[in-house]
Design brief:
Blueprint lengths: L10 H13 L4 E6 L4 E4 L25 H12 L4 E6 L5 E11 L2 E11 L1 H15 L9 H14 L4 E10 L1 H8 L1 H18 L5 E4 L4 E7 L3 H14 L4 E3 L2 E3 L2 E10 L5 H17 L5 E3 L8 H4 L2 H10 L3 E10 L5 E13 L3 E3 L5 H7 L2 H21 L5 E6 L9 H12 L6 E6 H6 L1 H14 L2 E7 L16 E4 L1 H6 L4 H16 L3 E4 L5 H9 L4 E2 L8 E2 H4 L10
Parallel strand pairs: 11-12, 14-16, 16-17, 17-18, 18-19, 19-20, 20-21
Antiparallel strand pairs: 1-2, 1-5, 3-4, 4-5, 6-8, 6-11, 7-8, 9-10, 13-14, 13-21, 13-22, 14-15
Length: 557
């Protein structure tokens, strides 16, 4: 602060105003002379300094461990430098000091020390940091900090052994469902406590998911990691008190170990995760070490049913939508096809061809199909509220053909979303019709009685005879993309496509071409009388928020 003096008569008034401002300044100020002695303080420093600090050297007011640093800062300020620092104070407080040279016409004659009590701010920052990096329920590291520690450990141990344990509690969902989430939280806290007590001082434990834990063992080979994992499972055998109940807990542990140069954190997590699924598949409550010969497709072999079920429980499956446009109406969207996607924790976004076959083989295709149907109906209802009415297309697998209650479940999903049967079209692949013709015919008949639409999907892919179309009571036909690809290259393919479209129209079916990627293909199909089309020319499959239909926008064509 610079205080100007107009004349000797004004000086007392100016000095009095300066003293009042100094006394009531919102931040504490200590005025020092050139020898580092206190000349005066502001009133906001009460409780931080002795009652009469004037005349005392500043260093006597500072904790002994900070005196040397403060002394250097004062000397720097007396040389004309601005200095800042933070020091601890009595009662657990922390003070931020800004040392400002006090100048006159003769140069620097002292120092003004601006004092801010930052105790509350630092406590809040530490709390926010804990919340960002620590799991609030268990006090363990969270996934973010654990992956960072794992990555650093891998970098440090380029030529040393490192091991990761991936632990998943067996049947934890049943504990929550049976005893309630409060009991489940008690179980998680106790599991975390037992993990901490069972590890070596240099080991790191984290909660990386709902009932999943990670343990990092540095300087450990697979054999040592296996001993640690078995010991941890043994520690879990003792029932856990959850309220008035005692709950038995078991876990499956996957182990990935090796040297630092051939792994990153996510790669190591992925291997341990696969080993954990294998432990689930082989009976649970056991440890499995990752087999280095395993491939990325091991996910389909190692406990895939458990993996799919847990992915559903965690909400990893989502639905993307591909617009279906009317070729004769300038490409206006009239429908969407709902397509499942799996946002795997380690493998990223997985397309249907990476998991649908496994879901069919394990029977998980039925609950997965229901999940897609329910979510698609809810999405269509939101579009309806925003003024867009788009028919839903949902695929059925061959296994679902045998679900006797499928039509009723579909109708119930529509009712819950406030939609009618005319808003849904279930799509059966041509191959499914060939494999299970009687089941398919019966299903189509029951869907028709409820007013729910049905389409034969991917027609032409199996090169079925055209007479097949007359055997099934479908109201839609979707041409396989192989037909579309051949339109521009083969007159025979174009002739077959035209014949299929004409026959389908005679049978009362609306025809959709799949996999349309070029304007030339769209033009040829339009000339053949094809009704609808879908493909990357119009839009790839997208999540709801990116599709532009929710707000009433039209996807680019």
């Amino acid at each position: 602060m610079v205080v100007g003096v107009a004349g000797s008569g004004a000086r007392p008034l100016r000095e009095e105003r300066y003293r009042e401002l100094f006394r009531y300044a919102p931040e504490g100020v200590i005025s020092l002379d050139a020898g580092g002695r206190v000349l005066g303080t502001s009133g906001s420093l009460r409780g931080l300094l002795p009652e009469e600090p004037c005349g005392e050297r500043l260093l006597r007011l500072v904790p002994p461990g900070e005196q040397e640093m403060v002394s250097r800062a004062v000397q720097g300020a007396l040389r004309g430098e601005l200095r800042e620092m933070e020091i601890p104070c009595s009662g657990g407080r922390r003070l931020h000091l800004t040392l400002v040279p006090a100048r006159t016409g003769e140069g620097v004659v002292g120092v003004s020390v601006v004092v801010r009590d930052v105790t509350g701010r630092r406590a809040l920052e530490e709390q926010l940091l804990r919340e960002a990096l620590m799991d609030p329920l268990t006090g363990l590291l969270n996934r973010t900090l654990f992956l960072d520690r794992l990555e650093h450990a891998a970098c440090r141990s380029r030529h040393a052994a490192i091991a990761l344990l991936y632990m998943d509690l067996d049947g934890f969902k049943e504990i929550n469902d049976t005893f309630g989430h409060e009991a489940g939280d008690e179980v998680l806290r106790e599991v975390a406590r037992r993990l901490r007590s069972g590890l070596r001082p240099g080991d790191t434990a984290a909660r990386i998911g709902g009932d999943e834990f990670g343990i990092l063992l540095e300087d450990s080979r697979a054999s040592e990691a296996l001993r640690v994992a078995r010991r941890l499972l043994e520690d879990l055998r003792e029932p856990i008190a959850a309220g008035e109940r005692r709950v038995c807990v078991a876990a499956s542990v996957g182990i990935a170990a090796g040297r630092g140069e051939d792994r990153g954190a996510l790669h190591l997590m992925r291997r341990a995760d696969l080993a954990m699924y294998r432990a689930k598949q082989r009976g649970k409550n056991r440890c499995e070490v990752f087999d280095p010969a395993a491939t990325p497709q091991a996910l389909e072999r190692a406990g895939v049913r458990e993996a799919l079920q847990q992915a559903m429980d965690r909400g990893e499956f989502t639905v993307h939508y591909q617009p279906v446009v009317a070729l004769a109406r300038g490409g206006r969207p009239v429908a969407v096809e709902a397509l499942a996607r799996w946002r795997h924790r380690h493998l990223g976004l997985m397309l249907p061809d990476q998991f649908i076959l496994s879901a069919e083989q394990t029977g998980m295709i039925v609950p997965l199909g229901q999940l897609v149907l329910e979510e698609a109906c809810r999405t269509a209802a939101r579009w309806r509220q925003s003024g867009r009415r788009l028919r839903l297309g949902v695929n059925l697998s061959p296994r679902e053909l045998w679900q006797q209650d499928l039509p009723e479940r579909a109708a119930a999903a529509l009712r819950r979303a406030g939609l009618g049967p005319q808003d849904l079209q279930l799509e059966l692949a041509e191959s499914a019709l060939l494999q299970e013709p009687e089941a398919a015919a019966g299903l189509l008949h029951r869907l028709g009685r409820l007013g729910i639409g049905a389409a034969i999907d991917d027609f032409g892919g199996a090169r079925s005879p055209l007479g097949l179309l007359g055997r099934f009571a479908a109201d839609g036909l979707k041409l396989d993309r192989s037909f579309v690809r051949g339109l521009e290259k083969s007159r025979e393919e174009a002739a077959i496509a035209r014949a299929v479209i004409e026959l389908a129209h005679r049978l009362g079916m609306q025809v959709t071409a799949k996999g349309v990627e070029t304007e030339a293909q769209a033009t040829l199909l339009r000339g053949m009388g094809c009704d609808l089309a879908q493909g990357h020319l119009f839009s790839p499959p997208l999540p709801e928020r990116e599709l532009g239909l929710h707000a009433g926008a039209t996807p680019s064509v």
